[in-house]
Amino acid sequence: MFEDFYIVVIAVLLPLTAGMLVAQRNPYHALVIRGIVGAVAALVYALFGAADVALTEALVGTMLSITLYAIAVRSSMSLRLGLLAAAPCNPDEPASQEPPLAQPLSKALRQALSRHYLRLEIVPYASPQALQFALEKKEIHATCTAVTETLTPTTAQSTASAPYHLSVRLPRLLEIVQNGVPPTLASVSFCRSRQITAANISDSPDARHNIWESQP
Amino acid sequence: MNGILIAMTLALLIPIYEAWQDEDIWQTMLAFASIATKTSIMILVVSVLRDDWMIGLVGVLILSVGNASLMLLAHVLRRMNEL
C-alpha cells in the first residue's frame, strides 16, 4: 500500500484542480484552468497505464477544446454598441476610424461591462435609419445617440443634463448598463425589438425605408 | 520512486496555488505553462522508472502539445486585449 502512495497523492490533484475550475467565475481564467485540469488528467491516465487516453486528453481535451472555447467566449461575451459615424462637418479634425463617444461615458461603460467579464465592441453606422434598422435586425445590442444632434456641442452640453441616450435591446444588459452608467452621463432606456415580418427583413432600401416610417 | 514523485507533486502544487490565487490572466497562463511542463516531465520520470516506452512516447507528445496549446491560447487572449 505504501509503495503506491504516490499514485494516491497524484490522483488527489485531479479533484483539487476540478474544484478550482468549478469555483472560477471569470470565463477566461476558467479556460486556462481547464487546460491545467487537462494536463493533470493526462498525468493520472498515463500513471494508470492508459497511454492512449492520456494522449487523447492532451490533444483533444486540452488543446482543441480550450482553443475553440476561447474563440467562442471571445466572440460571444461582448456588447455591440451601435454609434453614428463621425459627421464630416468638421474638416479640421483628421478622419478617424473610431466614432466619437464621450471619454467618461466610454470609461464608465467599459467598467460596468468588465465587472461582468464583457467587452465593449463599437460598431459605426452612417445614418440614424441604419442604426435603428441594425437594432431591429438584432445586429447590435444597444445604440448610443447624442440627445441633441442638431445643436452645436457647446449648447448641447450646457442645456441637456445627459448628453447621450443609450437604447438597449436586452433586459439583462439594460440592468447592467443602468447600474454602471451614472444618469448624468447618459440616459438609458429599454427598446423592445418588434417582430419583424419576412417582407421587412429584406435588405432593399425600400423595405428599410418602410420600417423607419412605420415607427410612431 | 515514491520519494521522487511525491517531491515532484509538491513542486506541482506551487503553480496550482498560483493559478488559484492570482487575478492576472497572464500569471494564470504562466502557471498553466509550468503545470503542463511539470506533468509531462512526471510522465517521463514514471516511464523511465517503470521502463515503459509507450508511456515515455506519450509523455514526449504531451510535452510538445501542451506548449502548442499554450501558444494558441496566448495568441487568442492577446488579440482579445488589443480590441
Order of strands in the sheet with the most strands of chain A? Answer: 2-1-3-4-5
Largest sheet of chain B: none
Total domains of chain A, how many?
Answer: 2
Q: What fraction of the residues of chain A are assigned to beta strands by DSSP?
A: 5-15%
Number of helices of chain A: 9
Going by CATH, the architecture of chain B would be Orthogonal Bundle
* Residue runs with pLDDT of under 50 for 5 or more positions of chain B: none
Radius of gyration of chain B: 15 Å
Distance between the termini of chain B: 49 Å
What structural class do helix, strand and pairing data of chain B support?
mainly alpha
The rough form of chain A would be described as elongated
Q: Give the quaternary arrangement of the chains.
A: heterodimer
Structural class designation of chain A: alpha/beta
Helix-strand sequence of chain A: HHHEHEHEHEHEHH
Total of domains of chain B: 1
Q: Say how many strands of chain A there are.
A: 5
Our measurement of the CA-to-CA distance between the termini of chain A, rounded to an integer number of angstroms, reads 79 Å
* Arithmetic mean pLDDT of chain B: 88
Annotated CATH topology of chain B:
Helix Hairpins
